[in-house]
Amino acid sequence: MRRRTIAIPAPPADASAPAASRDEGSGGQPEKLRTEFAFELPRGYVDESGTVHRSGVMRLATARDELVPLRDDRVRDNSAYLSVVLISRVLVRLGTIEDIHPGVVEDLFASDLAFLQDFYRRINSEGHTRASVTCPSCRDTFAVDLAGGGRLGES
Fold it and tell me: What is the DSSP letter of 27?
């Protein structure tokens, strides 16, 4: 699968600003959409030689990533397998392993799979689960993540 980064205009900070200045980041360049995110597993994947792989990269999911697993017989037989197939599609790298397939995800410790499910949810809903709040005591404003800790496919 070919990976790419696309340029998209940032949301307008000020609707009265000229369109050219709203579409460009600092230095007059269009802002780029971040599509890959690094992570560190709590325990790590242990390969057949005993090497532990903890760091990795996950990319944003596409509509195809979420649709293709639904045609997988393993998912049809057991809906819980959906997250295994889906996570294997969006993992770019796990340690030195770049060929990530469902068998690799099946061999993760349960805590690492839970971590990746939560990480998937967070990066794919970015911008939709954060809210700006103001502390009633000090009046400081900051962002909070409103998302719950549910698993993939749960509402």
Answer: G
Between these two residues, 121 and 19, which has the higher pLDDT value?
Answer: 121
Largest CA distance in the chain: 60
Contact 60, 90 (CB under 8 A): yes
Residue 25 has what pLDDT?
55
Q: What is the pLDDT of residues 16-73, one digit of tens each?
A: 444 444 445 556 677 788 899 999 999 999 999 999 999 999 999 999 999 999 999 9
Q: How far apart are CA 152 and CA 155, in angstroms?
A: 8
Please answer whether residues 102 and 74 qualify as being in contact, where contact means their C-beta atoms are separated by less than 8 angstroms: yes
- Mean per-residue pLDDT over the chain, rounded: 81
Taking the CB of residue 96, how many other CB atoms lie within 10 A of it? 9
For residue 21 the two structure tokens come to: 């200045």
Place of tokens 């360049």: 29
Could you tell me if 44 and 56 are in contact, meaning their C-beta atoms sit under 8 angstroms apart? no
Q: Please give the Cα distance from 117 to 113 (Å, whole number).
A: 6
